[in-house]
Amino acid sequence: MSKYDIIVLGSGPGGYVTAIRASQLGFKTAIIEKENLGGVCLNWGCIPTKALLKSAQVFDYLKHAEDYGLTLQKPDKDFGAVVKRSRDVADGMSKGVQFLMKKNKIDVIEGFGKLKGGKKSSGYR
Question: Global pTM?
Fold first, then answer.
């Protein structure tokens, strides 16, 4: 008999939600992820991109502060800090997925495709 009822490949937005629901329904569940929990969207795609866009939007607001009746010194940018913020946002959300895996007793297996080359951690990384 298998150790798991359900094994989910990939921990992107579809994968981690599926694993959580399976666990909530009483299935012994594992999730396999080759990199960071949350998948491409959370770690390198959608979420960091949205954080970068938000910084650009705030900078644009600051450049037009006078349009809002506000006076500032000339706004400036620090691209290193902007990128660090986007990474911090993504890392925080990945840690949130790690917490959900632990809370729902889902084993996280580092690897890809049917346990190949993977190693197991107990519910979080």
Answer: 0.80
* Domains held by the chain: number: 1
Q: Using DSSP bridges, classify how beta strands 107-110 and 119-121 pair: parallel, antiparallel or unpaired.
A: antiparallel
The per-residue pLDDT of the chain, averaged, comes to 91
56 touches 102 (CB < 8 A): no
**Domain for residue 38, yes or no?**
yes
Instruction: Give the residue carrying structure tokens 């959370």.
Output: 42
Distance CA 15, CA 33 (A): 10
Instruction: Please report, in angstroms and rounded to a whole number, the separation of the first and last CA atoms in the chain.
Output: 26
1 falls within a domain? no
Residues in the chain: 125
